[in-house]
Amino acid sequence: MLLSSVGRSSLRLRAAPRESYIEISNYIRGRRTGLLSTVRNRPQQFGQFHAQQRLYEQPHIDSSRQPFLEQYKNAVEFPRATYDFRTFLSEASLGQEVVLHGYLGNRADLSKKLSFVRLTDPTMRHNIQIVASAKSGAFEKLKSIATNSPVAVRGIVQQKKGSKSERDAPDTEKIEAWEISLEDIHALNDFPKDIIMTSETVFPPEQRYLHLRTDRDLREALRFRAQVRNICKEELDQSQPPFVEIETPLLFKSTPEGAREFLVPTRRRGMAYALPQSPQQYKQILMASGIPRYYQFARCFRDEDLRADRQPEFTQLDLEMSFATGEDVMTTIEGVIRKLWSTLMKEPVPSGPFRRMSYQEAMRRYGSDKPDTRIGMEISPIDYLLPVDLISKITPLMDPIVEVFKFEGNDNDPKETQRFITEFLDSPAGAPFNNNPEGGPGIFIYDAKKPLCGLQPFGFEAAERIEDMLEPDHGDLIVLQARKRAPFSGGSTPMGDLRRALHTASVEKGFKPAATGFDFFWVVDFPLFSPSTDAEPGQGGAAGISSTHHPFTAPKTAADVDMLLTDPTQVVADHYDLVVNGVELGGGSRRIHDAKVQEFILRDILKMPPERLADFSHLLEALRAGCPPHAGIALGFDRLVAVMLGKESVRDVIAFPKTGKGEDPMVKAPTPMTEESLETYHLRLRDE
Hints:
With about 700 residues, the protein is an alpha+beta fold. It has four domains: about 1-55, no CATH class; about 75-185, CATH 2.40.50.140; about 220-350 and about 635-680, Bira Bifunctional Protein, Domain 2 (BirA Bifunctional Protein, domain 2, 2-Layer Sandwich); about 375-515, 2-Layer Sandwich (Gyrase A, domain 2), CATH 3.30.1360. It has 23 helices and 21 strands. The strands form five sheets. The protein has an eight-stranded mixed beta sheet with strand order 6-9-10-21-20-19-16-11, sandwiched between helices. Helix 1 (about 1-10) packs antiparallel against helix 2 (about 15-40) and helix 2 crosses helix 3 (about 50-55). The protein starts with a helix and ends in an 8-residue tail after the last helix.
């Protein structure tokens, strides 16, 4: 019947289209009204239609019982600001009527007829005094608005009563010359009374929005971060030839690059995306696509154990260059660093190329592949000097390597040094070193008042050689540590970790001052492959080794290419890490641009199974299409900003960071999957 009615109406559209549309609409409404009356008469039988009833019947709402709607109407049509604060303070004129937006401060009532209040601008960088008198109709309105509420203020500019010295002071100290005589005020929202917000209030991560609002340093860190990004972008955009900013997909596929991935299930049974560990493969494909220079501020995701400088999601400044070597990349990055430091920082950076240090040298001298070279404490082997009985007391290992470094005491006082080292070793920070299965550290305090200056266990000859080697002063520590006699692997040795931990503790305890300045250098000549460990997933091959960084890194020299056939563990990679003050700012490499060589590495060196090798087929096909030589790097952008601001944790330069457990306590993520969502994605929880 509906179709026939519509059909008859459609015949009339040619003569009177508007009337025909109305007729159709009225007919449909009538059908709905009849349906709803039927539903009302039989609610128990047709309960499923109650939702439709709410759609078609609009209940009457008593506005007097909903006062928040009246308040909201005022906020919907609030007056537009005539100035931002910064412009106002420099351009306003006496007697001018202005409208300003901001947050209301604490009100000071001088009498029943006069009140003062500070208005803080939306950036929370500037504020101005508002004067309200009983003569103004807004006087009582002001008193009804809670502190910290957002408001729009209308008033007349008047001269502030202040001394001439205040008005003539430098901008950093200046008390503004103007104040506002209040004419009207609009409350744009209410700040609740149950939230106590002062400059001293410390808000938990669950209230990150209040933390941001009260912590000026945190807000300034986010503004600084934006400046760093803009300068990096400007430097790369203006290079010759310029880099091209290109976004690569976030929904990728699972490929064994070296870190654990986050999987994203889909409604297609058994199918999932993986969030990218980095844009590595896409940017190499861009090099095969005729894009000469690429960059992006890339979001990356890694399901790793978290530390102060790690988050499960993070940002990196990612770039790649075709027809380029690692030298070209390092030169480009040095230019970016110089631009940042010359624009935003007071500390200078080296004028020439940053110095280079091999991986082997860094591990030998500092026990770390990202050492803080400012703190000294260089490590030296010493086992060839030590008596056997002393070695047996500090390690259960047979034929170990024993190393030594000097930790300078404070004020040449052995008692203070003894107190510091005892507190450190008894603290949780010292526990890993005490429990080292290869032996705890051997600690000796150099004391000129004792026989052999406190080095009696070394014997006369060894003590004399140590004095010549380390040149200790009264109150210095002599620290020994044993390790297995094996080639260096990984990012640090127990001695290197102890060196770093001792310095950190000494600064935290006030025993020594913090190191200053910035020491940039490149760590180069890493091993191309390292032994596989259970702690890291590697690339899933069966060779017992994995790529030290990722499987796309090229061997450094022709001799290293030959060594792939004889001893892959001795191959040196054309990889480079930018290090400053004990932080790895980024890592890059020249890539394997030949498809046959890349496949050989994956299949014959790493011994990936065929199904995993197939995961890289897209990359191999792109390389096979005449891909030119290329190299690139990724700078940890969060780390870079943290280093520039002297922050210990990247969480201090991220608006909404995750906790150490990878959780967002503010939004309560991650959340448990419901049975419905599990079913949607064809998933089922497995009992442990």
